[in-house]
Amino acid sequence: MSKKDPAPQADDAALLGAAQVRELAERLEVRPTKQWGQNFVVDANTVRKIVRVAGVGPDDVVVEVGPGLGSLTLALLPVVRHVTAVEVDPRLAGALEETVRSLQPENAAKLRLVAADALTVTKLPGPDPTALVANLPYNISVPVVLSFLQHFPSIERVLVMVQLEVAERLAARPGSKTYGVPSVKAAWYADVELAGRVGRNVFWPAPNVDSGLVSLRRRTPPETTASREDVFGCIDAAFLQRRKALRGALASWAGSPDRAEAALVAAGIDPLTRGEQLDVAAFARIAEARPEGEADTPPRARRRGRETRSPVPGP
Hints:
With 315 residues, the protein is α/β, with parallel strands linked by helices. 37% of the residues lie in helices and 16% in strands. Strand 5 (131-135), helix 5 (141-151) and strand 6 form a beta-alpha-beta unit.
């Protein structure tokens, strides 16, 4: 992003207001669904704020997940080099390019549409993305952030709007009540901060929760000989029974309580410590110190269901 001039912004006439969103939804026979977490942004100032806080500019290639009717897409296009929009709803995907051509014909060539489930996307057409900016669907917020950081190392920063509770969880620090699996895994990739709060009245239909903006700035993962998969397996095991001391919580992951204790001592951690007290670097040390031999893979589906799929207003 150039430091010389302020980034351009879309005029109100080039954005979607509340009446236009409802009119477009009615024409497309779109009824917001809980299945895809659809709550459409109807406030121009909100989408401008998202773009501003994201810090993107004319050199950025932005991937947007869940563009919906295009409210945020239209705010991004005048500011950035290119937008790749990933949309799972076939009706919305089919209409997005037409909406852009109608309101911002000068920017239509800067949009590329990918009709797909974001959780299955491991490659994108066109130039490599430098940023993820999105108003994420409620049921895939944390998995999408982690997946895109994993599969697209070119993404340097992320700014997403999610349920406030999820935003706080992602940005939580060790020792807090909200610190958990999403907090630690996000910290593997990036420095994470809560970047703002968003009220319910900027959405249609209005959700029953407030939203938050969370900012992630990519940094180098902790230095370790353990793989990311090994570290994440350790994190999952530690929080599966978060009230347990790590000697017991990591027993299946390590192979036995004694093996878990050996790994913890080797990593310089008191075996009676609980997972919520450790940062991602500590988990990397534990994974690196796990003794060689057979170990069970901890069941993760149940914990993932609680930690990563909280309701969040969507696009």
